[in-house]
Design a protein that fits this description.
78 residues, mainly alpha, 4 helices
């Protein structure tokens, strides 16, 4: 089960991705994965999934989405 901070970050990345019209597949490919499966699994609301982004992913995603990685984090601890 994901922690509240993990889910918060996943949700922010998804929002930023959707705001620029980028598909899960395009983000997966830009991160070097062969299919959208990885991003799809992370963004899934299935409680048994424990996949989440690591710090390196967030840094690369910020580059791809042309934003600061700080935009993925809450202002106050959860």
């Amino acid at each position: 089960m994901r922690s509240p901070i993990q889910q918060y970050i996943i949700d922010r990345v998804c929002e930023k991705r959707q705001a620029i019209g980028m598909s899960q597949e395009k983000l997966s490919i830009a991160l070097g994965f062969e299919s959208q499966g990885y991003i799809s699994k992370i963004e899934s609301s299935i409680e048994s999934y424990d996949d989440h982004y690591n710090i390196d992913h967030l840094n690369e995603i910020a580059k791809i989405l042309k934003c600061s990685s700080r935009e993925f984090w809450p202002e106050k601890p959860l």
